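Hi V.,

Quick status before I head out on leave. The structure for the redesign project is tokenized and pasted below; the design run finished overnight.
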């Protein structure tokens, strides 16, 4: 098989509501936040891991393409007509004829404009990230119990997006760009990160370009 072209999609991810993507080791601080957002180990700035967006795009496309598995696992049918397996890779299947995973998403780092906003809040001693108190209601007595303190990236924050799509000769007659476009559009209608059903994680893609040319969802 031969790599025919590499397509690069860039843009920004804008948070329209507070976003919570938790770190893998969420430590509980006494009297602090139970649930901090993931931060870059070097810059300590929040970011959106490429794997979070990719996982969401995949699960959205599994729903749209009728590929949701009864066991809750990602699709690994490896059928030649399954664009989910072709673009994202057949989950945990080592032997198949689809070729390499077509899409990679880089970690989306904070956009310069947002970084400047965050610097201002650090300078004046306030916090750029917001803390949202989530109560669970004890339905027997109707009162709130166990408040949880969730850290969130506030609405308006922007992160830089880069998606790389490899097109091989065996993708002839398949519109993988359109598949990625549908996936992005579908994430806008859903959410990123945790607590989507509570309204968290609504995002919008801005200034999308495909190889430098305007790219409409
Ligand atoms: Zn599949």
């Amino acid at each position: 098989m031969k790599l025919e072209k590499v397509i690069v999609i860039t843009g920004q991810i804008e948070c329209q509501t507070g976003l919570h993507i938790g770190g893998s080791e969420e430590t509980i601080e006494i009297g602090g936040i139970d649930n901090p957002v993931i931060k870059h180990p070097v810059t300590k700035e929040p970011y959106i891991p490429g794997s979070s967006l990719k996982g969401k795009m995949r699960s959205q496309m599994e729903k749209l393409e009728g590929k949701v598995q009864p066991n809750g696992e990602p699709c690994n049918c490896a059928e030649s007509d399954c664009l989910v397996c072709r673009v994202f890779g057949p989950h945990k299947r080592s032997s198949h004829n689809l070729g390499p995973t077509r899409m990679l998403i880089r970690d989306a780092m904070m956009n310069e404009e947002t970084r400047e906003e965050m610097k201002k809040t650090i300078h004046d001693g306030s916090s750029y990230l917001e803390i949202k108190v989530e109560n669970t209601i004890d339905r027997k007595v109707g009162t709130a119990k166990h408040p949880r303190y969730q850290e969130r990236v506030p609405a308006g924050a922007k992160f830089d997006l880069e998606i790389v799509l490899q097109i091989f000769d065996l993708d002839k007659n398949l519109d993988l760009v359109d598949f990625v476009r549908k996936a992005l559009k579908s994430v806008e209608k859903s959410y990123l990160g945790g607590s989507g059903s509570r309204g968290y994680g609504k995002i919008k893609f801005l200034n999308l370009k495909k190889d430098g040319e305007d790219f409409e969802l």
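Above is the designed sequence. Residues 67, 75, 77, 79, 82, 84-85, 90 surround zinc ion (CB under 6 Å).

G. will cover questions while I'm gone.

Best,
W.
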